[in-house]
């Protein structure tokens, strides 16, 4: 009896140690820790991506249940359509001007806040919070907000101010060029906050002693900015540039709410073109092909930025 | 090269209740070509003083003159100074050559070729000509410091300001660089203000040293003056390693009473005490303490706690009653922890300070040379 008890105990100990060995093996294997993220990425990122690629090779439609694989026909249709090139032109203007303005204004704000904080001036926190609030508002709300501001009667907020200052009512949203400008303005208003946060964080990484050394070396504030701040900000500027370019290329909700792509198709950026193609004209295959083109554009842009802006060297 | 005068310098930070006086009425004159070391513990105002000279901080009160001309209010670039920083402050995105030529590009009308020539000459002098194409991250601490020095030298300034330039180097390299810096300064004959918290650096490098504490100038003089004739207990304790021993005593005529011993002064020495106060602090440098066999007058017993053999000498940590004290004895004297020793303080070596104000009322009898005293 006693022998049996001790044997059972022995087996229990062996089993426990095996389980614990197995546990530690599982725990120590990198796969255990990578798997949750890998599953998440596969389900929510990779699968839709692969699906978009697959769809782009079909003539899938929202109203026809049947579809067939048409190879590169969808792409060739997209590239041969004058609409696509016209939307691309609008997108390039929208993205180019927005990015330049967002970086420029973001930099000015970041420098002003940095200066304020270093000098212990009042109001720098209030400024940061107000600028940040523009960033946390959803794009669709920003679109509606700006639509209200830009109402084309004397009761629209901005037109009211213009009229009070002695000007005429401006067709912010019904004139093609002005509508594009208004869209850029609203997008810049939103995106500047992100630029500011990134660049402000970057400025904190530029050591004060380097600025002191440059002051001793006789560099004026502008020269210090040009020769010390900008080169040291390059990595942050680069990341900022890539991210805001990608965000702006993909901007869709704000434009939809603000102009709906109009007047005519004056503000129909590629993302909106893709949306209309899928849900207004029901051409899922074409929409997927545009999505793939946009993805490739984003990837190519990132590669170009990495290659030419940062070079291969980091300091 | 120029003479530098600091006159009643005051620097306050903050306002109202948050006001901090970093530098409090400091007067220092530095002769043309002199090497002055500003030394003191952390937060004593030495770096702030240096930054005021550089123009990196605005002066609250007082004047700073370069060759008699006030430079207060001038921008750093208009002061004809160059500065070497504690963490080298080399521009990380520039090569050593670009770092060294940056100041000349910003401030001079020299052609590219002329700047190159100056940079290369300086690099040769500093022994860093092979490093010119390297970026700071590719250089060791010592090499970075040489480039930082080179960057200051190419400017050929009237004054060099150095803010703890050796404190980031390891001990061995620090010693080497100390000598190099001195040689360089003697060769260039440029007026130099050097800030350090390390009293050894101050003692070994400076023509004169200025000791600061709590923003106030405590003493300015040659290293040996400050060592042998400290104006107060702070200077006496700060200068010298191991630091001076302090024992609280009460004066009764010619007798100094301590809880553990009584020390009798000669009439002549007692007369030299420049105070009527009875509460004094007796100071004695570790190397001035003598071991005796117990028969000597003014001898008393102390117990050895710890010994630190240095080779040529041994630092012996002793207990005199409850008080700790350090004696430096010859390296060949063998003492062990727990051993009882008889000590005496030679009368001509003792310092006495007012216990309340800390002011020196009697210093050790001078053994300085004539030229040393003349300074």
From TrEMBL, chain A:
Q: Where in the cell is it found?
A: Cell membrane
- Can you cite an annotated GO cellular component? plasma membrane
What's the short name of a Pfam family annotated to this entry? Answer: BPD_transp_1
Query: What keywords are annotated for this sequence in UniProt?
Result: Cell membrane, Membrane, Transmembrane, Transmembrane helix, Transport
Q: Which InterPro entries match?
A: MetI-like, MetI-like_sf
Q: Which family does it belong to?
A: Belongs to the binding-protein-dependent transport system permease family.
Q: What is this protein called?
A: Carbohydrate ABC transporter permease
Per the UniProt record, the source organism is: Saliphagus infecundisoli
- Organism lineage: Archaea, Methanobacteriati, Methanobacteriota, Stenosarchaea group, Halobacteria
Automatic annotation (TrEMBL), chain B:
GO CC terms of this entry: plasma membrane; transmembrane transporter complex
Membrane-related topology note: Peripheral membrane protein
- Where is it mostly found? membrane
Q: Which domain of life is it from?
A: Archaea
Its Enzyme Commission number(s) read 7.5.2.13
Cell compartments where the protein resides: Cell membrane
Q: Which CDD domains match?
A: ABC_MalK_N
Q: Which reaction does it catalyse?
A: L-arabinose(out) + ATP + H2O = L-arabinose(in) + ADP + phosphate + H(+); D-xylose(out) + ATP + H2O = D-xylose(in) + ADP + phosphate + H(+)
Q: Which PROSITE patterns does UniProt cross-reference here?
A: ABC_TRANSPORTER_1 (PS00211), ABC_TRANSPORTER_2 (PS50893)
Q: Which UniProt keywords apply?
A: ATP-binding, Cell membrane, Membrane, Nucleotide-binding, Translocase, Transport
Q: Which GO terms describe its molecular function?
A: ATP binding; transmembrane transporter activity
Q: Boundaries of each ABC transporter domain copy?
A: 4-239
Subunit text: The complex is composed of two ATP-binding proteins (XacJ and XacK), two transmembrane proteins (XacH and XacI) and a solute-binding protein (XacG).
Q: Which family does it belong to?
A: Belongs to the ABC transporter superfamily. Carbohydrate uptake transporter-1 (CUT1) (TC 3.A.1.1) family.
What does the UniProt record say this protein does? Part of the ABC transporter complex XacGHIJK involved in the uptake of xylose and arabinose. Responsible for energy coupling to the transport system.
**What name is this protein filed under?**
ABC-type D-xylose/L-arabinose transporter
Q: Which organism is it from?
A: Saliphagus infecundisoli
């Amino acid at each position: 009896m006693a022998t049996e008890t001790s044997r059972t105990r022995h087996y229990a100990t062996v089993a426990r140690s095996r389980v614990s060995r197995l546990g530690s093996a599982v725990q120590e294997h990198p796969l255990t820790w990578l798997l949750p993220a890998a599953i998440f990425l596969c389900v929510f990122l990779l699968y839709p991506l692969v699906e978009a690629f697959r769809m782009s090779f079909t003539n899938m439609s929202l109203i026809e249940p049947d579809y067939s694989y048409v190879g590169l026909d969808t792409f060739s249709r997209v590239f041969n359509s004058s609409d696509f090139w016209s939307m691309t032109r609008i997108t390039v203007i929208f993205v180019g001007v927005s990015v330049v303005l967002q970086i420029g204004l973001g930099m000015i704000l970041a420098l002003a806040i940095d200066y304020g904080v270093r000098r212990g001036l009042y109001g720098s926190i209030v400024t940061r919070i107000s600028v940040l609030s523009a960033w946390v508002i959803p794009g669709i709300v920003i679109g509606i907000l700006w639509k209200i501001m830009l109402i084309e009667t004397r009761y629209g907020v901005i037109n009211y101010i213009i009229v009070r200052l002695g000007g005429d009512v401006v067709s912010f949203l019904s004139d093609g060029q002005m509508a594009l400008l208004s869209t850029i303005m609203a997008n810049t208003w939103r995106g500047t906050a992100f630029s500011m946060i990134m660049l402000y964080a970057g400025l904190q990484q530029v050591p004060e002693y380097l600025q002191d050394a440059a002051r001793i070396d006789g560099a004026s504030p502008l020269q210090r900015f040009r020769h010390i701040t900008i080169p040291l900000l390059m990595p942050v500027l680069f990341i900022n540039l890539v991210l805001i370019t990608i965000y702006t290329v993909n901007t869709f909700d704000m434009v939809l709410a603000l102009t709906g792509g109009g007047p005519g198709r004056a503000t129909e950026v590629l993302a909106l073109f893709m949306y209309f193609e899928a849900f207004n004209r029901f051409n899922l295959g074409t929409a997927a092909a545009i999505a793939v083109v946009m993805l490739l554009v984003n990837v190519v842009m990132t590669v170009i930025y990495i290659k030419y802006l940062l070079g291969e060297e980091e300091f | 090269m120029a003479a530098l005068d600091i006159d009643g310098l005051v620097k306050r930070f903050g306002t109202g209740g948050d006001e901090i006086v970093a530098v409090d009425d400091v007067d220092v004159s530095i002769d043309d070509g002199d090497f002055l070391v500003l030394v003191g513990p952390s937060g004593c105002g030495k770096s702030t003083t240096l930054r005021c000279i550089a123009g990196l901080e605005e002066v609250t009160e007082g004047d700073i003159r370069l060759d008699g001309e006030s430079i207060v209010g001038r921008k750093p670039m208009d002061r004809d100074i160059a500065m070497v920083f504690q963490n080298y402050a080399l521009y990380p995105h520039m090569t050593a050559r670009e770092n060294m030529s940056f100041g000349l590009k910003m401030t001079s009308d020299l052609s590219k070729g002329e700047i190159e020539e100056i940079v290369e000459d300086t690099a040769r002098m500093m022994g860093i000509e092979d490093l010119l194409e390297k970026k700071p991250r590719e250089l060791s601490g010592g090499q970075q410091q040489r480039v930082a020095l080179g960057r200051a030298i190419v400017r050929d300034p009237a004054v060099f300001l150095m803010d703890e330039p050796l404190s980031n180097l390891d001990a061995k390299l620090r010693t080497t660089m100390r000598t190099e810096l001195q040689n360089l300064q003697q060769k260039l004959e440029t007026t130099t203000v050097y800030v350090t918290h390390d009293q050894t650096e101050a003692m070994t490098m400076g023509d004169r040293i200025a000791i600061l504490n709590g923003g106030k100038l405590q003493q300015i003089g040659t290293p040996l003056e400050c060592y042998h004739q400290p104006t107060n207990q702070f200077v006496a304790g700060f200068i010298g390693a191991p630091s001076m021993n302090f024992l609280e005593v009460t004066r009764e005529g010619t007798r100094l009473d301590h809880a553990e011993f009584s020390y009798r002064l000669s009439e002549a020495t007692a007369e030299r005490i420049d105070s009527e106060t009875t509460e004094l602090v007796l100071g004695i440098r570790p190397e001035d303490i003598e071991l005796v066999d117990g028969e000597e007058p003014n001898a008393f017993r102390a117990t050895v706690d710890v010994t630190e053999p240095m080779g040529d000498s041994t630092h012996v940590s002793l207990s005199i009653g409850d008080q700790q004290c350090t004696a430096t004895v010859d390296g060949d004297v063998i003492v062990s922890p727990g051993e009882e020793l008889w000590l005496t303080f030679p009368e001509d070596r003792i310092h006495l300070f007012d216990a309340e104000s800390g002011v020196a009322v009697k210093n050790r009898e001078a053994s300085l040379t004539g030229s040393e005293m003349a300074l």
